[in-house]
Amino acid sequence: MRRRVDPGDSLAELGRQIHAFTASCDDNFTEDFFGDQLFATAADARAAWPSCRRAVWAGTFRMNIPRASLVFDALTADGWKFLWSHWNRTPFQLAEALAAIHADRVSLAAFERRNPKGARDVADFLALWREDLATLDQLAHEFQLDCYAGAITRMSSGNTYGGVTPVDA
Q1: Where are the domains of the chain?
Q2: What's the pTM value of the predicted model, to 2 decimals?
Q3: Buried b / exposed e along 41-62 (16+ C-beta atoms within 10 A)
Q4: Chain segment 66-111, per-residue pLDDT in tens
């Protein structure tokens, strides 16, 4: 006799996996802040990532990339990191900032070539990430001109790629 599969079981498992990608404190996605087990192994996390990619991206704040995309999709956020840590240094290193942002664009294009299906699954979010990179490019030029007024606040957002804020959730 075959066991009847309850669709609720599959949905609950998917929810657990999505939670694991957002709650993990390590790049293996095996445990959370409290030491509770998430995925049994990094290989299990890698196998689950394609089915969770869209939902995790949807809940990720703009100007950020899901850690699983950094780990499994080889995307980078070096431009944001550089600007965040150098925005108030004098003189501002514009060439280094632009190089880091360019590297992020290169990693995005490489992901789209390497994994077209995965890229298609989140194409709308990747378009928003491209907009974020354009904003970072603009901010780098403002920082170079010592135009800090309000610029630093545009490096973060209360909005997620999916358009939901934590208050709405």
Answers
A1: 7-155
A2: 0.84
A3: eeebbeebbeebbbbbbbbbeb
A4: 999 999 999 999 999 999 998 888 888 999 999 999 999 999 999 9
